[in-house]
TrEMBL record:
Predominant localisation class: membrane
Organism superkingdom: Bacteria
GO molecular function: phosphorelay sensor kinase activity
Enzymatic reactions: ATP + protein L-histidine = ADP + protein N-phospho-L-histidine
Record-annotated membrane-spanning stretches: 290-314
Stretches assigned to the Histidine kinase domain: 376-591
Enzyme Commission designation: 2.7.13.3
SMART domains associated with the record: HATPase_c, HisKA
Protein known as: histidine kinase
Metal-binding as UniProt keyword: no
Sequence ranges assigned to domain HAMP in this UniProt record: 315-368
Entry keywords, A to Z: Kinase, Membrane, Phosphoprotein, Transferase, Transmembrane, Transmembrane helix, Two-component regulatory system
GO cellular component: plasma membrane
């Protein structure tokens, strides 16, 4: 036997389990998504910080190259200036004697010496001799290209006395100075002045190949040299055009360094970033696992707490139902009243209370009817039994003739027949109440049944001095139980005869339409009031109590008629007025 409390506990725990599962899953998804977002944000921050470190390292690397290049530039300017002053004087006095220009003729040789020393102030006339400016700068280019920087300054030395950088200096007139590591490797850093001057302002960086097929990073630093070249007059009448401006003297300092150190630092930064991401991912996984374990622990703890408390909670919730159950258990055959009021129960139990109250009222009325039925049956049996005993007692008081005994036996037989009819009606109602009466649906002609009933009742009506009349629309076939329909019509016709007035009339009218077949039994008897008409189909109810003593009318006939008509799927109604007769109409479905 299943228990409501157990079922409620199971349903509650099942619902709780589903709810906790949904909550845990949703919480897990929300937390996991939040942690993933946090991890992604942190990973992006790590990437940005790594990029910043790489950029800072590159800038530091580039600053070191630029610092080295500027150092060499300062050294170059310091070394070039004294050499240019001294060598210019040597160039003026030694490298350009008049005999140097002997090939150009005595006149030009003399002019070259006097012009260069500042003695010649007038322009030269006549002759097609070479341009002394071009000649001078050709010789100066050869001279300046031989200016030297101490080899010590070409050695890039760090704090640990380790040569790190590759140094190369490109002069204005094509001179190239290289550090020892480049000379040893026989390597010259590529340099195109025209291309560099287009993009170069002071310095620029690029990637360059270094000895050993290595790749490095280079800075090219452009710096001017303060070289004092020989001056020229602003205007040369002999040439008819102004003298050119002094060409700017620049040197281009290359400082290159292998990128492996930078790449090592960058790789270290990225490795550290990868390690941080790994730690971050591990922490996220650990946090997610811990949160899941916590959620599972909370869910299990909640489930166990509800499991322990559900019995008490459901018992409390079922208290109104227990009160109603106790009130129903207190109902007895002597008291059909519930001991609990409807308003004392919960909203859900109030309809149940109403239904139970209605059922108990019906049960009480049924008990009352049974009691009344027992009383009525006892009363109905008492009269014929008393009559039978009286007849027998009278017959036994003294000897009788054969004719007297024969009459006594006839009277006893008549009384016994009445008892048999009464018992048969009571048994019929008992079978109907028990549901043991079966209804046979067969096709029949209702006119045949009506005609047979009329043939039985007609002699009884004539014996009572009544007129009997039957009307019909012709043959009518329906699906019904012929025996029960015959019992209904016979009972109604018999009552019409018994409750009629002398000289009255009884009518049987059979009619039909597409949906129903109607049987109307009409009499001109005593009729009935509205109160009687409402109770006419109740068991053991008799409108005319004066007929009770006969033992024939026990008040069961119309009750049996009503039960039969209901089981045939039809309906019965009555119209009557006191003193104007009654009309009973039975309607059965035509299909």
């Amino acid at each position: 036997m299943r228990s409501t409390r157990s079922l409620l506990i199971v349903y509650f725990l099942a619902l709780l389990g589903v709810g906790l599962g949904v909550v845990v899953i949703l919480a897990d998804r929300v937390v996991t998504r939040a942690l993933d977002e946090k991890e992604r944000t942190a990973a992006e921050a790590i990437d940005l910080r790594t990029l910043e470190r790489v950029r800072n390292e590159q800038e530091k690397f580039d600053r070191e190259l630029l610092t080295h290049a500027r150092l060499i530039a300062r050294i170059a300017r310091r070394e070039y200036l004294p050499q240019s002053d001294a060598e210019r004087r040597k160039f003026d006095t030694q490298l350009l004697p008049p005999s140097y220009f002997a090939g150009f003729g005595p006149t030009f040789s003399l002019w070259a010496v006097t012009w260069h020393s500042g003695l010649a102030q007038q322009p030269r006339r006549g002759g097609s001799n070479p341009n002394p400016q071009f000649l001078y700068w050709s010789l100066a280019r050869s001279y300046l290209s031989n200016l030297r920087i101490d080899e010590l300054y070409l050695k890039p030395i760090d704090d640990d006395d380790r040569i790190l950088d590759y140094v190369q200096i490109n002069g204005t007139f094509g001179s190239v100075r290289r550090s020892e590591n480049l000379i040893t490797a026989g390597f010259v850093l590529p340099f195109e002045r025209s291309r560099v001057d287009k993009v170069l302002e002071d310095w620029t960086y690029d990637e360059v190949h270094l000895p050993g097929a290595a790749t490095g990073r280079r800075v090219i630093f452009k710096t001017p040299l303060p070289i004092q070249a020989p001056g020229f007059d602003r205007f040369r009448p002999s040439q008819g055009r102004p003298a050119p401006a002094d060409p700017s003297q620049y040197i281009y300092i290359h400082v290159a360094r292998l990128s492996n150190e930078l790449e090592h630092h960058v790789a270290t930064f990225r490795s550290e970033a990868a390690d941080e991401k790994t730690v971050l991912q591990t922490g996220t996984v650990r946090t997610v696992g811990w949160i899941r374990l916590t959620l599972a622990f909370i869910a299990v703890l909640t489930f166990l707490a509800c499991l322990l408390g559900s019995s008490w909670l459901i018992r409390r919730g079922l208290t109104p139902l227990s009160r109603l159950s106790d009130a129903v258990s207190q109902v007895s055959e002597k008291d059909f009243r519930l001991a609990v009021e409807r308003d004392e129960l919960t909203t859900e139990l109030q309809p149940i209370h109403t239904r139970i109250t209605e059922t108990l009222d019906q049960l009480r009325m049924a008990f009352e009817r049974e009691k009344q039925a027992v009383a009525d049956i006892s009363h109905e049996l008492r009269t014929p039994v008393a009559s039978l005993l009286a007849t027998i007692d009278v017959s036994l008081r003294k000897p009788r003739t054969a004719e007297s005994y024969l009459q006594t036996l006839k009277d006893c037989r008549a009384i016994t027949k009445q008892l048999s009819q009464l018992v048969e009606k009571v048994m019929t109602l008992a079978y109907l109440d028990a549901g043991q009466t079966k209804v046979a649906q067969v096709p029949v002609d209702v006119m045949d049944i009506a005609t047979s009933c009329a043939a039985v009742i007609r002699p009884l009506a004539e014996a009572h001095g009544l007129q009997f009349e039957m009307k019909s629309d012709g043959p009518i076939r329906v699906q019904t139980d012929p025996d029960k329909l015959r019992e209904v019509l016979t009972n109604l016709l018999h009552n019409a005869v018994e409750y009629n007035n002398a000289g009255g009339r009884v009518e049987l009218d059979v009619s039909s339409d597409p949906e129903n077949v109607r049987f109307r039994v009409k009499d001109t008897g005593i009729g009935m009031t509205d109160e009687v008409r409402e109770k006419i189909f109740e068991r053991f109810y008799r409108a005319d109590s004066s007929r009770t003593a006969t033992g024939v009318h026990a008040g069961l006939g119309l009750a049996i008629v009503k039960e039969y008509v209901d089981r045939l799927g039809g309906s019965i109604s009555v119209e009557s007025e006191p003193g104007a007769g009654s009309s009973f109409c039975v309607s059965l479905p035509a299909a």
